[in-house]
Backbone:
């Protein structure tokens, strides 16, 4: 028996149970062997649920069962999820997860344990939900030196920004609708403030550049300060506003990574990625730019990615996947504020005075109260802040080239 | 020594040599061992070329050298390329190729030989150039039942259609420019007539649905009959015109596959895929829709995909990749004309008479000579042809839903 155990019977965990069951024939064919769901660990009971018979409450049952070869961790967070992951790996079982927080913070260590034990730690679902992205980066783009990775990594904020642009909704109203539709959590801080996107760009940077990028060392600016004035100005200038995570590999080997709202020209494919969809662009020295698009969250899309990892773990039971990265350090990070770009600014000032100070900007819109414009030349964040010193700056976002 | 031989020192072959050399460190890290380019087979001499010392003229040298573990076939066609591929596989060497014609026609047989010999036959570069697509389908989407795959599979025709829309160019002028820029060959039949796209949709269908789809059984309609009237009408109706390959898996297990021009609503991401870029959409029962975008051709992008396969072959030297499909037969194909869709028609007729016959159509444009419209309801190709019987039909394209 090639046994699978699921930790946590929430949205993703129950999706994994469903996909494993419904697509069993295709999965067996692709894995080259039958996979058998044996346990689902949860503190709750699920009377009447079709998966009720799999429920167990004690992790030791899973840990000590030699028939369990793959453990699917969909608990989330870095507490008990971390403990169970370490114990499962130590017990010689492969672990598959959608837990971006755990991978972003402790991926380096957990991969070390997996390597020592000769098992796999796989986490395709931790970035981009169901979008195949981590495996294409490690395998299909393996012949490239990757120079940049960036994208729309959080569906909740993209849904809110899309509503603000398409329906002219105010931020608070768009957030409330997202909560009603189940796209945003009741405590939406992790999404809105860019924390979720930050974890994902760190995992992407880990894989693209081969060193552990600590989320604590990456500046994340969320969408809380994007106003309907900004979306109006952006639309008038033929831009979309998108929250992007971005990680750049510099010539000197240092990595610049950050999360922040950007003005994206409508001619760029990312500008057309709407609602809860995600898209990730990878730039390599041979491939040029390639983009991966799909559902960044949701029960079945995420479960699809988790189960693909389970299949991969089953296929590679005797051969470890060569996924790993090296330890990081502070010196390897390049301050993201020193990355040059063009900038969008909204300032409290009559339009005329902006043009007097910056003859070279493109005015996106304005009136006697407020002006939105895009700079013609590229500069660092501190340089643009200095040169905006004469204005009350209401918004300041990068423009994606 | 883990030796690599390249067959054919043309655009892709020389790109492979360059990528293997320039990105050697990253490749060795990803493959877990050093790869050494040892031979390049070509009938020509290349005096002064940096790779001159690798050139050999006799395939037997490669065939009989036990140090050669991977053979890269970039010759093209189904003649000598097929012979060398069979001999390399028979000699126990893995073969990697960008040759879509050979894979589309003889992939089933060649994979059988590879399986018997315990080696790999890999062809990521045969579809979508550098875009990671075949491996994501076989691995990342392995937990899905795939219901549909479609996309822009040919960069030459997409360049021509983009020029016709963006610059209002006539077909012949756009083709000539594409030839001058090297995007189209001097004999462009294979691209223009949809033959190249047909081979690629067959390979995608093979992998998505697990049975060999014979290119001879797939109807391919090219872009030769797309006129500037059509692009004008499409633009007016907020559509792009794209040549799409499409393969649908029906509930009864049959497969419908075809290549034809489509009107694509501007709200669909595919409508924004311009110039020589390619994009492929995969629809699965768990993932929903996911899209892969990038350079569909070109020296380095294609070489990037080839070398990724070489790395994969080297990593899986002792373990075959589970890529294969079953033999096909005629009964498994569903006639593509019986797939229902909305339709765009351009007819020689004054606008008034179209509206009298079809009150429910959307008129995209017209005058006393010609009218372009989109039907409101879905129908098969034969049904729309019957109902258009009273008109002289100048163009008839599907509308992508």
Residues:
């Amino acid at each position: 028996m090639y046994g699978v155990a699921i930790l946590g019977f929430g949205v993703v965990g129950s999706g994994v149970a469903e996909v494993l069951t419904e697509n069993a024939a295709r999965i067996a064919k692709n894995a080259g062997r039958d996979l058998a769901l044996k346990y689902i660990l949860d503190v709750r009971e699920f009377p009447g649920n079709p998966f009720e018979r799999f429920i167990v409450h004690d992790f030791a049952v899973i840990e000590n069962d030699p028939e369990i070869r793959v453990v699917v961790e969909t608990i989330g967070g870095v507490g008990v999820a971390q403990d169970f992951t370490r114990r499962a790996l130590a017990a010689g079982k492969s672990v598959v997860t959608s837990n971006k927080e755990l991978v972003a913070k402790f991926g380096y260590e957990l991969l070390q344990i997996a390597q020592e034990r000769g098992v796999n730690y796989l986490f395709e679902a931790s970035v981009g939900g169901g979008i195949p992205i981590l495996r294409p980066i490690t395998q299909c783009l393996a012949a490239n030196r990757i120079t940049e990775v960036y994208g729309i990594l959080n569906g909740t904020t993209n849904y809110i920004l899309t509503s603000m642009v398409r329906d002219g909704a105010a931020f608070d109203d768009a957030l409330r609708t997202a909560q009603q539709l189940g796209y945003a959590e009741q405590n939406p801080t992790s999404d809105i403030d860019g924390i979720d996107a930050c974890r994902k760009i760190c995992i992407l940077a880990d894989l693209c550049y081969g060193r552990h990028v600590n989320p604590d060392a990456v500046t994340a600016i969320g969408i809380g300060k994007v106003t309907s004035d900004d979306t109006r100005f952006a639309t008038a200038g033929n831009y979309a506003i998108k929250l992007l995570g971005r990680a750049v590999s510099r010539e000197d080997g240092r990595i610049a990574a950050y999360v922040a709202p950007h003005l994206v020209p409508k001619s760029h494919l990312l500008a057309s990625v709407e609602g809860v969809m995600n898209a990730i662009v990878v730039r390599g020295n041979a491939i040029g730019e390639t983009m991966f698009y799909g559902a960044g969250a949701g029960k079945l899309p995420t479960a699809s990615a988790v189960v693909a990892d389970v299949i991969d773990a089953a296929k590679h039971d005797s051969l470890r996947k060569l996924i790993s990265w090296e330890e990081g350090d502070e010196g390897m990070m390049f301050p993201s504020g020193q990355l040059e770009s063009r900038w969008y600014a909204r300032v409290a000032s009559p339009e005329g005075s902006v043009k007097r100070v910056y003859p070279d900007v493109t005015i996106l819109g304005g009136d006697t109260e407020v002006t939105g414009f895009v700079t013609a030349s590229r500069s660092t964040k501190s340089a643009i802040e200095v040169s905006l010193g004469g204005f009350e700056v209401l918004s300041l976002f990068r423009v994606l080239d």
